C-alpha cells in the first residue's frame, strides 16, 4: 500500500473526485442523449470515451469531457435531418478536423473568438433547449424549429391543463427542477450527493411508489446501440447541408471546450492548459465517438468544476470516472429503464437556464453596448434560423464591430480666413469611415485651395486612397489650385 502511495501520491483524492464526477455525469449523459433524440446508452458511450480516451491524453489535466447540453439542439437537428446513421460520420469528421487543427497549432485562435458570440451562442441554445424540454416535461411532442417551439408554448400549456397525464408529467419535471435549485441550500454533508442525481433518484422513487403513468427511458443495451457508420452514411458527405453541420459541430465543440479549459484553469493552481494538445485530445475523443456512432463530446464545465471542487489533483480522476460509467452501463443498464423522462427534461431545463448569462447582460449593456448587441443578435439568430447560421451572424457582427472600432479617425479642418484650408487626418482611414471623410471634404468651399495632410495616418486602405485621389481631382477641376497632399509617414495598405 505504501509503494502505491509513493507511485500515486494523489490516488485517494483522485478516487474520491472520480466518484463525485461519475455521479454528476450519469444523469447528464442520459438526459443529453434522450434530449438529442438518440438512445440513452449513446450518452453513456460518449461519457466513457471522454474518460478513457480524452481523459488519458495531455491538454487540460482536470477538465472532464462528455456529451454536453450545449450541443443537444444541434445533434437533434442533425439526427432529424440526416438520420442516426449519419451522426457517426458527422462526429468522426469533427474529430478528424479537430486533430488537424491541433496539429497545425490552431487551438489558441479559438481563444480569439468574441466572448459575446460564445455567450450569445449558449444563450440561444439555452432558450431552444428550455422550450423543447418543456414539451417533453409535459409528455408532448415538440415542434422542430426554435421559433415554433417558443410560439407553441401557450398552446402546449392549454393542452397540458386539459390532460391529467400531462399535468402529472409536468409536475414531476417541475419537482425535479425544484429539488436541483433547493439542493444547494442544504447542509454541505447532504450536498456530497450531486443535486442532479438526487433529483432523478427522488423522481424515480416517486414514480415507482405511486405508480405514476409517465414515460420512462427506453433501454436497448450498450452493445446494441453502438452502430459504426456504414458506406451509405459516408455517402451523405456529398450533401452540402451535412458539411455545414460538420463545420458547426467543429466550431461549437472546439470553442466550448477551450473556453471551458480557460475557466477551469482559474479554479485551480495546477498545470495550465496546453490548448493545441487539448484540441487534439477532444479530436481523438470525437473520432472514437464517431467510429462508435455515439454523441459528440466537449469539455463540460459542470463536471470539470465538480472534479476540481472534489479535490482532484491529476487526470486519474477523470479516467476513473470513465471506468465507473463503463461498469454502470455494462452491469446495471436496466436501472435506466426506471428513470422517468420528465425528470430528465427537468434536468435539461435547469441546464438550459444556466446557459443563459442573465447576470452579465445588464452590466454588459451598460458598459459595452456593442458587445451586448452581438450577444442578443447571436442568441435571437440561433432561435430564429439555426445554430450554424446564428453563430456565423454573430461572428460577422463581431468582426464588423472590431473593424469599426479599429478605424478610429479624426478630421480637423483649419481655416484662417485667408490662404489654403488645411485638412488634417489622423488615425486609421478605412472604407468603414469613408462616407464620413468624403462628406466633410466635399463640404469645403470649391473656390479655395486645400492642403490635405495625411501624415498623421497610421493606416490608409486602398479604398480610402482612391476616394481621396478622386475627390482631390474633382476639387481641382473647378480652376482652383491643385490640392496639396502630404503623404502618410508609413506605407499605405
Largest sheet: 4 strands, mixed
Tell me the number of strands.
6
Alpha-carbon Rg, integer: 28 Å
Termini gap: 68 Å
Q: What gross morphology would you assign?
A: elongated
Mean pLDDT: 86
Q: From N to C, what is the helix and strand string? A: HHHEHHHHHHHHHHHEHHHHHHEEHEHE
Which percent band covers the strand fraction? Answer: 5-15%
Broad structural category = alpha/beta
Low-confidence stretches: none
* Spatial arrangement of strands, main beta sheet: 3-4-5-6
Q: What's the helix count?
A: 22
> Which percent bin holds the helix content?
55-70%
Outline of the structure:
The chain has 493 residues and is an alpha/beta fold. It has 22 helices and 6 strands. Helix 21 links the parallel strand 4 and strand 5 (450-460).
Amino acid at each position: 500500500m505504501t509503494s502505491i502511495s509513493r507511485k500515486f501520491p494523489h490516488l485517494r483524492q483522485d478516487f474520491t473526485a472520480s466518484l463525485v464526477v461519475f455521479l454528476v455525469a450519469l444523469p447528464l449523459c442520459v438526459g443529453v442523449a434522450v434530449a438529442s433524440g438518440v438512445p440513452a446508452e449513446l450518452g453513456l458511450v460518449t461519457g466513457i470515451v471522454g474518460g478513457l480516451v480524452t481523459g488519458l491524453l495531455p491538454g487540460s489535466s482536470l477538465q472532464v469531457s462528455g456529451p454536453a447540453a450545449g450541443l443537444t439542439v444541434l445533434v437533434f437537428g442533425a439526427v432529424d435531418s440526416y438520420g442516426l446513421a449519419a451522426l457517426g460520420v458527422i462526429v468522426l469528421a469533427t474529430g478528424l478536423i479537430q486533430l488537424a487543427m491541433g496539429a497545425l497549432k490552431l487551438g489558441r485562435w479559438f481563444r480569439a473568438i468574441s466572448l459575446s458570440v460564445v455567450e450569445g451562442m449558449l444563450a440561444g441554445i439555452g432558450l431552444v433547449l428550455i422550450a423543447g424540454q418543456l414539451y417533453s416535461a409535459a409528455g408532448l411532442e415538440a415542434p422542430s424549429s426554435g421559433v415554433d417551439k417558443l410560439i407553441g408554448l401557450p398552446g402546449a400549456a392549454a393542452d397540458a391543463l386539459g390532460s391529467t397525464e400531462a399535468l402529472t408529467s409536468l409536475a414531476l419535471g417541475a419537482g425535479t427542477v425544484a429539488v436541483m435549485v433547493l439542493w444547494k441550500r442544504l447542509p454541505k454533508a447532504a450536498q456530497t450527493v450531486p443535486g442532479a442525481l438526487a433529483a432523478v433518484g427522488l423522481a424515480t422513487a416517486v414514480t415507482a411508489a405511486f405508480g405514476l403513468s409517465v414515460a420512462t427511458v427506453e433501454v436497448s443495451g450498450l452493445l446494441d446501440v453502438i452502430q459504426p457508420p456504414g458506406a451509405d452514411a459516408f455517402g451523405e458527405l456529398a450533401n452540402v447541408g451535412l458539411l455545414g453541420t460538420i463545420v458547426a459541430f467543429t466550431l461549437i465543440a472546439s470553442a466550448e471546450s477551450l473556453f471551458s479549459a480557460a475557466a477551469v484553469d482559474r479554479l485551480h493552481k495546477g498545470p495550465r492548459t496546453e490548448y493545441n494538445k487539448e484540441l487534439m485530445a477532444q479530436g481523438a475523443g470525437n473520432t472514437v465517438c464517431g467510429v462508435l456512432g455515439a454523441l459528440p463530446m466537449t469539455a463540460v464545465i459542470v463536471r470539470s468544476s465538480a472534479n476540481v471542487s472534489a479535490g482532484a489533483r491529476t487526470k486519474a480522476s477523470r479516467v476513473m470516472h470513465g471506468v465507473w460509467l463503463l461498469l454502470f452501463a455494462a452491469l446495471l443498464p436496466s436501472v435506466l429503464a426506471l428513470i422517468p423522462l420528465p425528470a430528465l427534461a427537468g434536468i435539461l431545463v435547469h441546464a438550459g437556464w444556466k446557459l443563459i448569462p442573465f447576470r452579465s447582460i445588464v452590466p454588459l449593456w451598460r458598459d459595452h453596448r456593442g458587445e451586448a448587441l452581438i450577444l442578443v443578435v447571436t442568441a435571437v439568430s440561433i432561435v430564429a434560423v439555426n445554430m450554424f447560421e446564428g453563430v456565423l451572424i454573430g461572428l460577422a457582427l463581431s468582426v464588423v464591430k472590431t473593424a469599426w472600432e479599429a478605424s478610429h479617425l479624426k478630421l480637423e479642418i483649419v481655416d484662417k480666413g485667408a490662404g489654403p484650408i488645411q485638412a488634417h487626418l489622423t488615425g486609421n482611414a478605412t472604407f468603414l469611415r469613408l462616407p464620413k471623410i468624403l462628406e466633410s471634404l466635399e463640404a469645403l468651399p470649391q473656390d479655395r485651395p486645400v492642403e490635405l495632410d495625411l501624415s498623421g495616418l497610421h493606416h490608409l486602405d486602398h479604398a480610402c486612397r482612391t476616394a481621396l485621389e478622386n475627390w482631390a481631382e474633382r476639387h481641382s477641376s473647378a480652376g482652383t489650385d491643385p490640392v496639396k497632399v502630404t503623404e502618410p509617414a508609413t506605407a499605405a495598405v
